[in-house]
Amino acid sequence: MAFLLPLCLIGLIGALLYLFLVFNFNYWRKRGVLGPKPRPLFGNLPNVVLQKRSFEYDILDIYREYKGKDRFVGIFNLRNPQLLIIDPKLVQDVLITNFRNFSENEFSKWRSEVTPALTNIRIKASYPIMLSVCGKMTKYLEKETKKHLPHGVEARELAARYTTEVVSNCIYGIEAGAFEEGPCDIREKGAAILDQSFGSKIYLMMMSLLPDRLRGIFKRPFMRKDMQTYFIQLMKEAIKIRQSTKSDRADFLNYLLQLREKKNLTEIELAAHTLTFFVDGFETSSILISNCIRCLAQSEGAQQKLRDEINKTIEENGEISFEKLLELPYLDQCINECLRLRSPGISITKRCSNTCELMSSKEKPIKVEKGIIVVLPYYALHHDPEYYPNPEEFIPERFSPENGGTKKYKEMGVFLPFGDGPRICLGMKFALCQSKAAIVEIIRNWRVKLNPKTNPTFIIDPKYFFCVPEGGSWVDFERIIN
Description:
This protein has 20 helices and nine strands. It is of the alpha+beta class. It folds into two domains: 16-116 and 346-376, Uridine Diphospho-n-acetylenolpyruvylglucosamine Reductase, domain 2 (2-Layer Sandwich); 119-344 and 393-482, CATH 1.10.630.10. Keywords: Endoplasmic reticulum, Heme, Iron, Membrane, Metal-binding, Microsome, Monooxygenase, Oxidoreductase.
């Protein structure tokens, strides 16, 4: 009989745990919202936990199953109710018309402070840096290709070296040494901030299971103390160098120094501003560049057409001016098609900041309570054959001027690589500029094709929250002798 008590306790704990995991699974049903039946622990997105495939494919399956049944669908991420938007017009409503109900107030102040740093004038001032780093990238590729490596060069690794060097120079005014032998300290530190290790994901999963009141108790700092110290010290060194050289370069660092004087920013606030742009600038842009190179490596015709456009635009000094870079229509088409097909961000979430109503397809208002996460399935919209025939094919002509460019797709609410509305990605212009410069440098100097090591089918790696291919993008580079 003595063993019955422990068994009863185990059974009671198990029952309580089960009830905790499923007690709110009727959340959407009570509100009359359609949705698939959730599973204990997993909800409707099992691969958030299992990682057998990217959870983005879970979202894609739900989108396809419920498209045409209603404008949105109620889902559960683990045990947390979320609203998956299916109708692109409703996506626009969340991003544009109704954006005040899906924004965080503390972000507004930060946004108003940094917006002036991202003008065309400041980006143009950074363009010579991009060209200089492009030259370093070509020298690095020449060295790597002479090794005759059987697996070629991994495109994302190459692009990450490039973006790290560009962003370090533009933001901190220092050279990172990303193309040199050995580890690059600043890049390793930046990558660690976006920790996507299994342990980190388990922590996030456990936090999402906890009630709101308990999350604050177990919440860990966004950044480890040693990382915080590193970037504050880096910021100090950058300021010291800038002041000693008395440079008034109209770049991001120059603007932040002016902002520090006006707003009396602390070292931590200053470091936070720079760190945000550093991480965004090197991570998402490197994914865009590598995915675009991969697309061009698989499309010889598009690659040659882009090369012809570039060669016609090169000036007497062998370079392409900032103004000309922005006027390469086929380059824009290739990048836009890559952003549709392989956008770095695959689904975006917005937290409801004010309780509001969204209208169902039956003209029935559904209350969205404050705190509910709304999922905007960019990847699913970008791969919907109703909007994009043959959606898995790389067809830059979709975005040709004759076909209206991106305008008609944006108006439909189905082209959203940078979001839309007042909360559109702040770093979009800078990201596009540095990405274009890198792609031009590679395509004008190298013929690219996929190495046999690369799986020709692009499968999103479940280990990442971004659109990164499983197994990498290994590319062979053949030097073009002009």
